[in-house]
Design goal:
The structure is a single chain. By secondary structure, this protein is an alpha+beta fold. The protein contains 6 helices and 15 strands. The chain has helices at residues 32-37, 42-64, 66-69, 76-89, 121-124, 149-152, and strands at 6-8, 11-14, 23-26, 130-134, 139-144, 147-148, 161-172, 174-177, 182-185, 194-198, 202-203, 207-208, 211-216, 229-242, 248-262. Strands 7, 10, 11, 14 and 15 form a 5-stranded antiparallel β-sheet that branches. It has a 3-stranded antiparallel β-sheet with strand order 1-2-3, with no helix packed on it. A 3-stranded antiparallel β-sheet has the order 4-5-13, with no helix packed on it. Helix 2 crosses helix 4. The longest helix has 23 residues, at 42-64. It starts with 5 loop residues before the first strand and ends with a strand.
Protein backbone atom coordinates (compact mmCIF):
# COMPACT_ATOMS: atom_id res chain seq x y z
CA UNK A 1 0.00 0.00 0.00
CA UNK A 2 3.01 2.33 0.44
CA UNK A 3 5.17 3.01 -2.62
CA UNK A 4 8.78 3.86 -1.82
CA UNK A 5 12.07 4.44 -3.60
CA UNK A 6 15.36 3.89 -1.82
CA UNK A 7 17.06 1.37 0.47
CA UNK A 8 16.07 -0.27 3.72
CA UNK A 9 17.44 -3.29 5.63
CA UNK A 10 19.29 -4.94 2.77
CA UNK A 11 16.74 -4.14 0.05
CA UNK A 12 16.79 -1.55 -2.74
CA UNK A 13 13.57 -0.21 -4.28
CA UNK A 14 13.63 1.63 -7.61
CA UNK A 15 11.76 2.31 -10.86
CA UNK A 16 13.00 2.11 -14.43
CA UNK A 17 11.82 3.52 -17.74
CA UNK A 18 9.21 1.33 -19.43
CA UNK A 19 7.60 0.10 -16.20
CA UNK A 20 5.27 1.80 -13.71
CA UNK A 21 6.07 -0.73 -10.98
CA UNK A 22 8.58 -0.50 -8.17
CA UNK A 23 11.36 -3.09 -8.50
CA UNK A 24 12.92 -4.60 -5.37
CA UNK A 25 16.25 -6.40 -5.11
CA UNK A 26 18.37 -7.65 -2.26
CA UNK A 27 21.81 -6.34 -1.45
CA UNK A 28 24.75 -8.53 -0.57
CA UNK A 29 27.08 -11.04 -2.18
CA UNK A 30 30.86 -11.29 -2.08
CA UNK A 31 32.85 -8.22 -1.06
CA UNK A 32 34.48 -6.05 -3.73
CA UNK A 33 37.91 -6.91 -2.38
CA UNK A 34 37.24 -10.65 -2.58
CA UNK A 35 35.97 -10.38 -6.16
CA UNK A 36 39.02 -8.32 -7.09
CA UNK A 37 41.67 -10.60 -5.53
CA UNK A 38 40.36 -14.13 -4.95
CA UNK A 39 41.32 -16.79 -7.56
CA UNK A 40 37.80 -18.17 -7.18
CA UNK A 41 36.52 -15.11 -9.03
CA UNK A 42 39.09 -15.13 -11.85
CA UNK A 43 36.49 -15.98 -14.52
CA UNK A 44 34.07 -13.41 -13.11
CA UNK A 45 36.76 -10.75 -13.42
CA UNK A 46 37.18 -11.61 -17.11
CA UNK A 47 33.44 -11.21 -17.66
CA UNK A 48 33.48 -7.94 -15.75
CA UNK A 49 36.19 -6.61 -18.06
CA UNK A 50 34.11 -7.60 -21.09
CA UNK A 51 30.98 -6.09 -19.59
CA UNK A 52 32.80 -2.77 -19.19
CA UNK A 53 33.55 -2.90 -22.92
CA UNK A 54 29.92 -3.73 -23.73
CA UNK A 55 28.68 -0.75 -21.73
CA UNK A 56 31.21 1.49 -23.46
CA UNK A 57 30.00 0.31 -26.89
CA UNK A 58 26.36 0.79 -25.84
CA UNK A 59 27.14 4.32 -24.69
CA UNK A 60 28.57 5.20 -28.08
CA UNK A 61 25.61 3.74 -29.97
CA UNK A 62 23.43 5.97 -27.78
CA UNK A 63 25.58 8.96 -28.73
CA UNK A 64 25.09 8.10 -32.41
CA UNK A 65 21.29 8.29 -31.95
CA UNK A 66 21.40 11.00 -29.27
CA UNK A 67 18.83 13.38 -30.78
CA UNK A 68 16.15 10.69 -31.15
CA UNK A 69 16.98 8.58 -28.08
CA UNK A 70 14.96 11.01 -25.92
CA UNK A 71 11.83 9.77 -27.74
CA UNK A 72 12.23 6.20 -26.43
CA UNK A 73 9.59 4.85 -24.05
CA UNK A 74 11.82 2.17 -22.47
CA UNK A 75 15.39 1.89 -21.22
CA UNK A 76 17.24 1.76 -24.54
CA UNK A 77 20.66 1.95 -22.84
CA UNK A 78 20.03 -1.26 -20.90
CA UNK A 79 18.88 -3.04 -24.06
CA UNK A 80 21.98 -1.91 -25.97
CA UNK A 81 24.20 -3.07 -23.10
CA UNK A 82 22.86 -6.58 -23.63
CA UNK A 83 23.00 -6.23 -27.41
CA UNK A 84 26.68 -5.25 -27.24
CA UNK A 85 27.41 -8.22 -24.97
CA UNK A 86 25.85 -10.56 -27.53
CA UNK A 87 28.02 -9.01 -30.26
CA UNK A 88 31.03 -9.71 -28.05
CA UNK A 89 30.03 -13.37 -27.70
CA UNK A 90 30.15 -13.72 -31.50
CA UNK A 91 33.94 -13.33 -31.40
CA UNK A 92 35.25 -16.91 -31.43
CA UNK A 93 38.86 -15.96 -32.20
CA UNK A 94 39.80 -14.35 -28.89
CA UNK A 95 39.48 -15.84 -25.37
CA UNK A 96 36.96 -14.65 -22.78
CA UNK A 97 38.19 -11.41 -21.29
CA UNK A 98 39.52 -10.02 -24.56
CA UNK A 99 36.79 -10.68 -27.15
CA UNK A 100 36.27 -7.84 -29.63
CA UNK A 101 32.98 -6.03 -30.23
CA UNK A 102 32.52 -5.73 -33.99
CA UNK A 103 29.31 -3.91 -34.79
CA UNK A 104 30.53 -3.44 -38.37
CA UNK A 105 30.27 -7.19 -38.97
CA UNK A 106 26.65 -7.38 -37.80
CA UNK A 107 25.21 -4.00 -38.79
CA UNK A 108 21.96 -5.52 -40.04
CA UNK A 109 21.02 -6.50 -36.48
CA UNK A 110 20.13 -2.87 -35.73
CA UNK A 111 18.19 -2.22 -38.95
CA UNK A 112 14.66 -0.99 -38.17
CA UNK A 113 15.33 -1.10 -34.41
CA UNK A 114 12.32 0.51 -32.67
CA UNK A 115 12.99 2.86 -29.77
CA UNK A 116 9.38 2.55 -28.61
CA UNK A 117 7.24 -0.38 -27.58
CA UNK A 118 3.86 1.27 -26.98
CA UNK A 119 3.69 3.61 -29.98
CA UNK A 120 6.13 2.50 -32.68
CA UNK A 121 7.21 4.78 -35.51
CA UNK A 122 5.01 3.03 -38.09
CA UNK A 123 1.96 3.32 -35.84
CA UNK A 124 2.44 7.09 -35.41
CA UNK A 125 3.59 8.17 -38.87
CA UNK A 126 2.21 5.94 -41.62
CA UNK A 127 4.74 6.67 -44.34
CA UNK A 128 7.76 4.86 -45.78
CA UNK A 129 10.67 7.31 -46.08
CA UNK A 130 13.34 6.45 -48.64
CA UNK A 131 16.93 6.81 -47.48
CA UNK A 132 20.55 6.23 -48.39
CA UNK A 133 23.92 6.53 -46.68
CA UNK A 134 26.74 7.77 -48.92
CA UNK A 135 29.92 6.79 -47.11
CA UNK A 136 32.30 8.28 -49.66
CA UNK A 137 30.57 11.65 -49.32
CA UNK A 138 30.16 11.22 -45.54
CA UNK A 139 26.46 12.05 -45.74
CA UNK A 140 22.97 10.60 -45.65
CA UNK A 141 19.72 11.55 -47.39
CA UNK A 142 16.18 10.88 -46.19
CA UNK A 143 13.26 11.53 -48.53
CA UNK A 144 10.04 12.34 -46.68
CA UNK A 145 6.99 11.67 -48.89
CA UNK A 146 3.73 13.59 -49.04
CA UNK A 147 1.93 13.50 -45.68
CA UNK A 148 -1.79 13.90 -45.09
CA UNK A 149 -2.03 14.25 -41.32
CA UNK A 150 -5.73 13.27 -41.33
CA UNK A 151 -4.90 9.73 -42.44
CA UNK A 152 -1.14 9.28 -41.97
CA UNK A 153 -0.43 10.83 -38.58
CA UNK A 154 -1.65 9.44 -35.26
CA UNK A 155 -1.45 11.97 -32.43
CA UNK A 156 -1.97 10.07 -29.15
CA UNK A 157 -0.97 13.08 -27.04
CA UNK A 158 -3.30 15.50 -28.88
CA UNK A 159 -0.54 18.10 -29.16
CA UNK A 160 -0.87 20.82 -31.83
CA UNK A 161 2.56 20.55 -33.50
CA UNK A 162 4.92 17.90 -34.83
CA UNK A 163 8.15 17.66 -36.77
CA UNK A 164 10.34 14.92 -38.24
CA UNK A 165 13.93 14.63 -37.04
CA UNK A 166 16.76 12.54 -38.51
CA UNK A 167 20.26 11.79 -37.24
CA UNK A 168 23.44 10.29 -38.67
CA UNK A 169 26.04 8.95 -36.25
CA UNK A 170 29.28 6.99 -36.36
CA UNK A 171 30.37 4.09 -34.14
CA UNK A 172 33.74 2.31 -34.34
CA UNK A 173 34.44 -1.32 -33.46
CA UNK A 174 36.16 -2.10 -30.15
CA UNK A 175 39.02 -4.36 -29.09
CA UNK A 176 40.91 -5.18 -25.92
CA UNK A 177 44.17 -3.27 -25.52
CA UNK A 178 46.56 -5.83 -23.96
CA UNK A 179 48.83 -3.08 -22.65
CA UNK A 180 46.14 -1.38 -20.55
CA UNK A 181 43.71 -4.27 -20.06
CA UNK A 182 40.88 -2.00 -21.21
CA UNK A 183 38.61 -1.84 -24.23
CA UNK A 184 39.32 0.91 -26.75
CA UNK A 185 37.83 1.90 -30.11
CA UNK A 186 39.56 1.23 -33.40
CA UNK A 187 38.90 4.88 -34.24
CA UNK A 188 38.61 7.10 -31.16
CA UNK A 189 38.15 10.26 -33.24
CA UNK A 190 34.60 9.41 -34.35
CA UNK A 191 33.24 8.89 -30.82
CA UNK A 192 30.25 11.10 -30.16
CA UNK A 193 29.80 12.07 -33.82
CA UNK A 194 26.10 12.74 -34.46
CA UNK A 195 24.62 15.07 -37.08
CA UNK A 196 20.95 16.09 -36.86
CA UNK A 197 18.50 17.52 -39.37
CA UNK A 198 14.79 18.21 -38.98
CA UNK A 199 11.78 19.63 -40.73
CA UNK A 200 10.12 22.78 -39.49
CA UNK A 201 7.31 22.50 -36.96
CA UNK A 202 3.97 21.70 -38.61
CA UNK A 203 0.41 21.77 -37.43
CA UNK A 204 -0.92 18.28 -36.75
CA UNK A 205 -3.84 19.15 -39.03
CA UNK A 206 -2.50 19.92 -42.51
CA UNK A 207 -1.04 18.61 -45.76
CA UNK A 208 2.78 18.47 -45.99
CA UNK A 209 4.61 18.37 -49.30
CA UNK A 210 7.47 15.92 -49.98
CA UNK A 211 10.92 17.03 -48.85
CA UNK A 212 14.46 15.79 -48.29
CA UNK A 213 16.62 15.93 -45.16
CA UNK A 214 20.40 15.82 -45.61
CA UNK A 215 23.04 15.17 -42.96
CA UNK A 216 26.73 15.62 -43.78
CA UNK A 217 29.62 14.81 -41.46
CA UNK A 218 32.72 16.97 -41.64
CA UNK A 219 35.29 14.29 -42.39
CA UNK A 220 38.15 16.75 -42.84
CA UNK A 221 39.05 16.46 -39.16
CA UNK A 222 39.13 12.66 -38.89
CA UNK A 223 39.14 9.53 -41.04
CA UNK A 224 35.73 8.06 -41.91
CA UNK A 225 36.64 5.50 -44.56
CA UNK A 226 37.48 2.47 -42.42
CA UNK A 227 35.59 -0.82 -42.70
CA UNK A 228 35.45 -0.90 -38.90
CA UNK A 229 32.99 2.03 -38.80
CA UNK A 230 29.20 1.74 -38.63
CA UNK A 231 27.04 4.57 -39.98
CA UNK A 232 23.75 4.70 -38.05
CA UNK A 233 20.81 6.57 -39.61
CA UNK A 234 17.78 7.23 -37.39
CA UNK A 235 14.42 8.97 -37.70
CA UNK A 236 11.88 10.22 -35.19
CA UNK A 237 8.65 12.17 -34.78
CA UNK A 238 8.55 14.87 -32.09
CA UNK A 239 5.32 16.46 -30.87
CA UNK A 240 5.30 19.99 -29.54
CA UNK A 241 3.26 22.67 -27.82
CA UNK A 242 3.36 26.50 -27.80
CA UNK A 243 6.18 27.89 -25.67
CA UNK A 244 6.39 31.11 -23.68
CA UNK A 245 6.86 33.13 -26.89
CA UNK A 246 4.05 31.15 -28.56
CA UNK A 247 6.60 29.29 -30.72
CA UNK A 248 6.52 25.47 -30.84
CA UNK A 249 8.73 23.61 -28.37
CA UNK A 250 9.17 19.86 -28.03
CA UNK A 251 7.40 17.94 -25.29
CA UNK A 252 9.66 15.45 -23.53
CA UNK A 253 9.09 11.83 -24.62
CA UNK A 254 6.11 12.82 -26.79
CA UNK A 255 6.82 11.02 -30.04
CA UNK A 256 8.58 7.95 -31.39
CA UNK A 257 11.77 6.96 -33.18
CA UNK A 258 13.61 4.11 -34.84
CA UNK A 259 16.90 3.28 -36.53
CA UNK A 260 16.33 3.27 -40.27
CA UNK A 261 19.49 1.32 -41.02
CA UNK A 262 23.19 0.80 -40.37
CA UNK A 263 25.75 0.72 -43.15
Amino acid sequence: PIEMIGSIQGYSFYKQLGSDKVIARTKGGASKQKIKKSPNFATLRLHQTEWAGSVKMSRNICRAIFHVKQLADFNVSAYLNGFSKKLQALDVENPIGSRSIRLSAYKYLLDDFQLDRIHTFASILRISPAWEILKDAAEAHVQIPYINTDTQLVNPTNLPYFRIITTLGLVADMFMNPETGRYIFNNEDVNGTCIVSSTEWYSTNRIIEPQELIMKINNETFETSGDDLSWILSIGVEFGKPGYDNQPVEVKRAGCAKILGVR
